[in-house]
Structure formats: structure tokens, C-alpha cells
Specification:
With 915 residues, the protein is α+β, with helices and mostly antiparallel strands. It contains 27 helices and 24 strands. Among the domains are: 228 residues, no CATH class; 219 residues, no CATH class; 182 residues, no CATH class. Strand 5 and strand 6 form a beta hairpin. Its main location: membrane.
């Protein structure tokens, strides 16, 4: 069969029935796709973006996986085999028992390095560096660090220093360095007795050696950052150090792994490995590098599952769902445009199966081409990132291809296209042959619409019931908490799962019933808009003409806006609830601790904008006895009683009216029995200035009156109390804190930076308190929200492509109508404006509905998660909504540009044409 296309007519030149099968159907499919290529471009673009995102996600996962493998196996250098301990190992092999020489002399073993490390101290030029990690030296290929200059130690009197240690000690190549074992490496390092300390010092002196610096090294990663780098010694030097310190036999260091570089291929390699296995100790196993990396990856991630990749893939799947909605809308209109041609095919003998196959072939071709383009773009972007040398921390971007990273996005892209087009193929087979003579407008069956409405209402009711019951039950669970934290937590997780299921059912019901309520919502919004002018009246009328198409477009945008609104509402509600809880838990806004804090620092802080008051507070470690069996170690803060209320957010009551009051926090003292409000408490503080132990105890004892007060958040380590500084007069302390009370709404980050500068000379300064906690949680929530909204932006972009697609189809479908409007006097500006109004109405309706649903869903989630903290502060993110609506409307206007440009090209003469 041969067909040819002339403008919009399908002319039949030959009609033999036997040729309406096989390759002819495929040729017809390609011909019809060429005719409607412009219509399919938005759908193809949606698939391109979806597969691009998914492929980039998987390629990023490959890079992250490779980076994690390198980081975890960096100790192995370039070793291709490793002797590693098994999980069932009960006794590791010790360093002085391991036959490294016998193993290294085996044929095929090019080199080995035992994984043994110990802590050493280094001294040179009056400088010292404590607790540096020392490792065994070997061939360059087996070393986990790189040599900057010099050479690896080839004798026991040589050492390689890391660059930071070399700079600190001011020791270069050829200089002498004194080295000895750190006391933390010695046996019994946890003991603090005077006898053990003396013994350790004696062992350290015995193990002190003078070595010559033979090289300077640098780390490849961050595995040695906590130690300032790694010192390299020969294995015999390490053995002699351990022997000099008495660390032999059972006290010797264990060998964790032995890294090997084995040469050979085929039978030669197998023979070498067989010989190596004879030297493998009991409880150890020989692994190749890939097996070792897989094992380490499983230990790091549990089951070897990359959580980050899975997290990103969920957003990729969401983008594919939205793309499927755009595709479904495209094929629905395409089938409507092709109904007459499909009827002609039915006349010449095509059966229903061939019609369905023809539509699905178009979807298959579109999905394959678009998916391949998306994958190629993803590969190009990742390859470009690698060429530019982009990196994130230790992770360097590069193009690492795996079958899954190419096949998964391709298959999902093609499947999404086929599934989205399946409904349109079902409509295509219901085309009657008589429609070839007289086109008939397609009408959606009303019975199906009513069935969908019933299903949507049922799902929404079930979801609402689940949400209501789970919310009530979690509130009851918190109020009747039995004290079993584990059981309560498990029940809360199950109730949260039910609430999430309920929200999903409500949302699914809203999506299924969208064909009813979205057009109704747009009609309500369009009534006042249609009175503005002719362009608005035409735009609103166009929306009402095809509710199915408008509903499908609105649903795509609704999904993105709802999810963004849910995240924004949940985030702002979480922040307000957490801030309220932090404000109740922390009585001091900012608490600064550190050595050497003084009144000069306080005066500098008081001059900072946003600081209402600052006080220097003494801090003591004390024991408090109640007169009975109760005794508690307690942190006691002392300052002038008249100044306590200036910096403390708490209702202290009349307690501080007593000169001998010891304000005890009710939030921490409740865990100790025997303490009573108003009882006499014996306070014992060690006086560091006293010489005799008895004088220390006698001078530091005070009898105070315990007063319970509702303050908190001062010391996370245990129980704490506050008293007047006069009650601890004569007892000196080197530990002070500065308590700060803030005022106004100055930016927290700027305020904390100014405070750090005011006390910048204190290296050990630490800041805590309610304000710092609020800032920490605010940054975490804002960062997570920004990441998730950015990821959801992919789905929103695809949804806006759907808006443009709907408008373009509307323009192509109403060319005669547009020509008629132009003929009766409508200007091109008014035509453009009508399409802009149509786009804005769809975006406005979907955005408003998404904001309402998102607010409800965000409140439900926040309540389920934060109700254990007390009352949940339900908050509306007005600033986020004030951004969502203008952005949606602006994007809708941009989406209407291309359809409007197509519409104004229509000549008024086309109103007179027959077709």
C-alpha cells in the first residue's frame, strides 16, 4: 500500500488488503509521526528531561560509589590482593608472629605491606608533635600516601614525615628527629594511676630513638587528617620499637590486613595464589581487590545499597510520572486529530489490533528517540564535568558507565511513553469507519467519568479516616506514655506509616477526580476574569471547551506544586515547633565556655549589636548531698544573684530572695531521689588553692538551701545548679563561662560571628545555648528543603512543558476558529493575550489547589513527627506561597509564548477553507 500526504488529507492510491500488515503499518506510522512531529516535540522534551535526570542520578551514583571505594581502600595503595580477617575470627595474628619475609619471598609476590599502625610522638628543634600515626613502609605501589620529595626509608634509622609534621617541627631532608611511642599505644593506656603513669614514662624513655628524615609525604585522602598525617618506618624499626617498650608476645600489635601485589596471569597466577594461601593464618582469607572493596562497601552501607542514589531516583521517578501525564495528553490530542485517517485505515481493511499497534509504534519510536537523546545529554554533561575537573570534596566527577546507568533510564523512558499512550491507543480502536466521511467530535463516556468520581471519593474518604485515626492515636500515645521508649517509638513509626498511606490515598483520590474538580475550579476563577475584556473572555472560554485536556495539564502542575508546598509547610512548622521547644529547654540564649574568659571579653560582647546583656559566670564541679543516701555530681554556676535574671529566660519565683539559695534544675534533679524543695544541701567543691587534702575539703564545703526552679539547657553532661557568687567566695576556679541574652531580630549568623571575633584569642572556645541550637536546626532544615525543592524543580519544569503543550495543541486544533476571530477584528496582541490568560488560569488553579493540599499534608506530617515534643505550632509559609504563585504565573506566561507565536501566524483567509 502506498500513501501520500498533501497538507492535511490522506490520499489513497492503492488498497490491497494483504498489504495493510507488517512493514506497511510501520511505514504509515512513520508517515503520520512526520506529519505530527511538531505536536510530539513537547512530549519528547518531557521524556528527554526525565531520562536525563535519571541517567545523571545513576552516573552520579557511579562516581560516588567509585569515590567511596577509593576512600575505603586507600590503605591498600595499588595492591591487587589482600589477606583480610574473616568475620568469625576470634584471635588476630600478632605483628611479631607474622612471617612477612617468607610470604614476600614467594614466587609471584612482587611486594607486601602489613597493615599495622601505632601512635608515636616526634620532637625536633624544640617543637613537638603528639600522637602521629606510624605505618609500615613498602614499595611505592603499596603505599597509601604519596612521596613529595626524598625517598622511602630503606634502613631502620630513617623516617618519612608528613608535610604538616615536617612544617611544625621545622625538619627537612637529612635532619634528625627524636621519635618515641605515644603513651596511648602502650598497654594499660586507659589507667590513670600514678604507678602506671610512672611506668609508661619509663617505657617511653626506653623506646626513644633518633632518626634521619629521608622523605616528606602527603596524604591522598583524609584518612590521616585526625593524626596530622602518617609517619613511615621500616617494619623492623616498628618491631624494635615495640620490643623496647615491652610490647612483645600477647602485648604486640595485631595485623589487620596484609596488602599484596601479585604478578602473573592464568595458571601462573593461580599457582602463586595457591602458594600464598598456605601462609594465610587461621581466621584470615585471601581476597582480590574487588572483593575487598565490595565487602567494605557492604560494611559501610549495610546491604551495599546507595541511599543517596535511591533518594535521588525517587525524584527521577516522579519526573517520569509527570512526563507520562504530558505524553498521555499529547497522544490523546494526536489521536483526536488522526481520527479521520484512522477511519480511512479501517475502511481499507486495518483491524483494531493494527490500529492499536500503529499508535503504540508511534509511542515506541518517540520513547526510544527521546530516551537516547536524554542519555546522550547526561553522558555529555558528566563527561564535561570530568574534563573541567569539577569535584565535591574528595569525589571527582568523571564519566563512569555501567549497564544499569544506561539501561534503567532507557527502559523507564520507553515504558513511561508506552504506558502513557496505551489509553490513547484504546480510544483509537473505537474509531468507526464512517468517521472517514464525516468527522465526529470525540466525547468521553459519561459512565466512565462517574465511575472515576466514585473511586476518587472513596479513596479520599479512606485516606481521611486513616489520617484522622492515626493523628488521634499518636496524640493519645504521647499523653499516656508508659515510659517504654522503644515500644513507644515503634508505635509512632507505625502510626506515621498509616498517616503517610492516608495522605497518599487522599492525593490519589484528588488526582483521579481531577477531571471533575479542576475544570469546576477554573470556571469559578474564570468568572471574574472573563469580565475584564475580549481576550480574557476567549481565554476562559477555551478552558471550558476541553476539560479532560485541561485537567490532565493541571494534574501535572498540581503534583509539583503540592509536593513543594508540603515541604515548605512541613519545614516552617518544624522550625517553629523546634524553636518553641528549644526556647523552653534552654534558659540561656548563648553560652560561651573556654579557658581564660574574663570581664574584658564581656565588655566587648556587650558592645555588639543584638546583645542585651552578658555576664561572666564561674563554673565548679561539685558534689551535692541531701543529708540522706542521695548524692549527685553536679555542675554549679555562680554569679551575682541580682544579675541572674538579666541573662536567664526562666521563672525563678522567689527562690533567689534567699541568700543561701542553690537553684536546682527541676528537669535534671528529678532523676535523683531524696532531694526536696527547701531542704538543706551540702555542697562540696574542691578548692585548687588549698595545699592539704583536708583543707581542700573543709574550705570548699557549703550548706545551702535547695530551691527547685524551672530552668534548663545549661549543661548537657548531667545535673546542674545556680547559686549566688557570695556562697562560693574564697574558692577559685579557672573555668568561666559567659552567658549572653540577645534582643531584636538580628541575623543569628552575623551575631555569632561578631561574638567569636570578640573572644577570638581563645582557641578552645565553644558556643552553645538556645540561639545556637536554633541556628543549627534552621540551617539543617533549610538545606534539606533547598535540595528537595531543587530536585522537585525537574518535575515542575516538565509540568510547565505540559502547559505549553496543551496551548500548542489548542492552537493547532482551533486554527479555523482563530482565523475567524482575526477576520472579525481580533488583533494579534489580543490573540496572544487570550493564550496567556488560558495558561495563567491553568497555572493559577493548579497552584492554588496544590498550595491547599500541600499545607494540609505538611501539617499532618509535622504533627505526626513533632507531637512528642508537646504542642505543634501549625504555621503557614506565606513567604513561600508568595513566591510560588508569581513564579507559576510567570512560567505560564513564558510557556504561552511559542503557542501564541504559532497562533498569530494564522491568516484570516483560513476561516473560509473547507478543512
Amino acid at each position: 500500500m502506498t500513501f501520500w500526504l498533501n497538507k492535511s488529507r490522506l490520499a489513497l492510491l492503492a488498497i490491497p488488503r494483504y498489504r495493510t500488515r507488517g512493514c506497511t503499518v510501520w511505514r504509515i506510522t512513520r508517515t503520520m509521526m512526520k506529519r505530527d512531529a511538531r505536536m510530539m516535540m513537547p512530549a519528547g522534551l518531557a521524556i528527554v528531561i526525565g531520562t536525563l535526570f535519571m541517567c545523571l542520578t545513576l552516573l552520579f551514583g557511579n562516581v560516588a560509589n567509585a569515590s567511596m571505594r577509593r576512600e575505603m581502600s586507600v590503605d591498600a595503595g595499588q595492591a591487587n590482593y589482600v589477606v583480610a580477617s574473616r568475620e568469625d575470627q576470634d584471635k588476630p595474628i600478632l605483628f611479631d608472629e607474622f612471617d612477612s619475609k617468607g610470604l614476600s619471598n614467594l614466587q609471584g609476590v612482587r611486594g607486601l605491606r602489613p597493615d599495622v599502625s601505632l601512635l608515636v610522638d616526634a620532637e625536633a628543634n624544640g617543637q613537638s608533635s603528639k600522637e602521629i600515626l606510624a605505618i609500615v613502609g613498602a614499595r611505592q605501589e603499596l603505599m597509601p600516601i604519596d612521596l613529595v620529595r626524598g625517598q622511602w626509608p630503606d634502613s631502620d634509622d630513617q623516617v618519612v614525615l608528613p608535610q604538616p609534621v615536617s612544617d611544625r617541627l621545622q625538619a627537612g631532608l637529612g635532619d634528625k628527629v627524636r621519635l618515641h611511642l605515644s603513651t596511648l599505644t602502650l598497654p594499660g593506656s586507659d589507667s590513670d594511676s600514678a604507678q602506671d603513669s610512672s611506668s609508661k614514662e619509663r617505657l617511653v624513655d626506653q623506646g626513644t630513638v633518633d632518626l634521619t628524615v629521608s622523605g616528606i609525604s602527603k596524604s591522598r585522602g583524609r584518612q590521616y587528617d585526625d593524626f596530622g598525617g602518617a609517619v613511615v618506618l621500616t617494619d623492623s624499626r616498628i618491631e624494635r620499637l615495640l620490643s623496647m617498650a615491652g610490647m612483645v608476645g600477647p602485648e604486640s600489635l595485631p595485623v589487620n590486613n596484609v596488602y599484596l601485589q601479585v604478578d602473573g596471569q592464568g595458571k601462573e597466577l593461580q599457582k602463586a595464589l595457591q602458594n600464598i594461601r598456605r601462609y594465610v593464618p587461621k581466621g584470615y582469607q585471601l581476597e582480590d581487590r574487588r572483593t575487598m572493596e565490595d565487602r567494605l562497601l557492604r560494611e559501610q552501607t549495610g546491604d551495599g545499597v546507595d541511599i543517596t542514589t535511591l533518594f535521588l531516583m525517587t525524584f527521577g521517578l516522579l519526573a517520569m510520572v509527570v512526563a507520562a501525564l504530558v505524553i498521555a495528553n499529547t497522544f490523546q490530542i494526536m489521536v483526536a486529530r488522526q481520527r479521520r485517517y484512522l477511519a480511512l485505515l479501517r475502511i481499507i481493511g486495518a483491524d483494531r489490533r493494527q490500529i492499536r499497534v500503529g499508535v503504540l509504534q508511534q509511542a515506541l519510536l518517540l520513547g526510544v528517540i527521546s530516551s537516547l537523546i536524554g542519555i546522550l545529554l547526561a553522558m555529555g554533561l558528566m563527561g564535561l564535568a570530568g574534563c573541567l575537573g569539577l569535584h565535591s570534596g574528595t569525589m571527582k566527577f568523571e564519566l563512569l558507565l555501567t549497564p544499569a546507568s544506561l539501561l534503567v533510564p532507557f527502559v523507564l523512558g520507553v515504558l513511561a511513553t508506552l504506558v502513557a499512550a496505551f489509553g490513547s491507543s484504546h480510544r483509537a480502536i473505537r474509531v468507526r469507519p464512517l468517521e472517514a466521511l464525516q468527522p465526529v467530535d470525540y466525547q468521553e463516556p459519561g459512565s466512565r467519568d462517574r465511575t472515576g468520581l466514585r473511586i476518587s471519593v472513596l479513596l479520599a474518604v479512606i485516606g481521611l479516616a486513616l489520617v484522622t485515626w492515626s493523628s488521634w492515636r499518636v496524640g493519645e500515645l504521647v499523653r499516656t506514655n508508659s515510659g517504654d521508649t522503644v515500644q513507644t517509638s515503634n508505635q509512632q513509626e507505625r502510626l506515621l506509616g498509616l498517616a503517610v498511606l492516608g495522605v497518599l490515598l487522599i492525593f490519589l483520590g484528588a488526582l483521579i477526580g481531577a477531571r471533575r474538580w479542576i475544570p469546576a475550579l477554573l470556571r469559578c476563577l474564570g468568572k471574574p476574569v472573563s469580565k475584564i475584556g475580549p481576550s480574557c473572555r476567549v481565554g476562559v472560554a477555551n478552558i471550558a471547551r476541553n476539560p479532560s485536556r485541561v485537567a490532565a495539564t493541571g494534574v501535572a502542575l498540581l503534583i509539583g506544586v503540592t509536593l513543594v508546598s508540603t515541604l515548605a509547610t512541613g519545614a516552617v512548622t518544624a522550625k517553629r515547633t523546634l524553636f518553641k521547644d528549644i526556647d523552653q529547654r534552654y534558659s540561656v540564649d548563648i553560652e560561651i565556655s573556654g579557658q581564660g574568659l574574663n570581664k574584658r571579653n564581656v565588655r566587648a560582647i556587650e558592645r555588639i549589636q543584638g546583645v542585651a546583656d552578658a555576664e561572666l559566670v564561674q563554673r565548679f564541679n561539685a558534689k551535692v548531698e541531701s543529708g540522706g543516701p542521695s548524692q549527685a555530681s553536679m555542675t554549679v554556676y555562680a554569679l551575682d544573684a541580682s544579675r541572674i535574671r538579666r541573662v536567664l529566660h526562666a521563672d525563678l519565683g522567689p527562690g533567689m530572695q534567699r541568700s543561701d539559695a542553690l537553684l536546682v534544675s527541676t528537669r535534671t534533679i528529678s532523676r535523683h531521689s531524696g532531694y526536696r524543695d527547701g531542704s538543706q544541701l551540702k555542697l562540696s567543691i574542691a578548692d585548687p588553692q588549698a595545699d592539704d587534702e583536708r583543707e581542700k575539703e573543709a574550705d570548699a564545703r557549703r550548706t545551702l538551701t535547695g530551691v527547685f526552679a524551672g530552668f534548663g539547657g545549661l549543661d548537657t553532661s548531667g545535673v546542674y545548679a545556680i547559686t549566688d557568687s557570695r556562697n562560693v567566695a574564697g574558692i577559685d576556679t579557672k573555668t568561666h563561662e559567659i552567658w549572653i541574652r540577645t534582643q531584636g531580630d538580628r541575623d543569628t549568623a552575623l551575631l555569632l560571628d561578631d561574638i567569636r571575633q570578640a573572644v577570638g584569642e581563645h582557641d578552645d572556645m565553644a558556643m552553645s545555648g538556645g540561639l545556637t541550637q536554633m541556628r543549627t536546626w534552621s540551617e539543617r532544615i533549610d538545606s534539606l528543603l533547598a535540595i528537595m525543592v531543587a530536585l522537585l524543580g525537574v518535575a515542575v519544569i516538565i509540568a510547565l512543558i505540559g502547559v505549553s503543550n496543551t496551548l500548542m495543541m489548542s492552537v493547532l486544533e482551533r486554527r479555523r476558529e482563530t482565523a475567524t476571530l482575526r477576520a472579525i477584528g481580533m488583533s494579534s496582541v489580543q490573540v496572544r493575550r487570550s493564550l496567556g490568560v488560558e495558561a495563567c488560569m491553568i497555572a493559577l488553579g493548579a497552584s492554588l489547589a496544590g498550595i491547599v493540599l500541600g499545607t494540609l499534608f505538611g501539617w499532618i506530617g509535622a504533627y505526626q513527627v513533632f507531637v512528642p515534643l508537646g504542642s505543634v505550632t501549625f504555621t503557614v509559609p506565606w513567604s513561600a506561597f508568595a513566591l510560588i504563585l508569581p513564579v507559576a504565573l510567570l512560567a505560564a506566561v513564558v510557556a504561552s509564548v511559542l503557542p501564541a507565536r504559532e497562533a498569530v501566524k494564522v491568516s484570516p483567509i483560513e476561516a473560509l477553507s473547507d478543512d
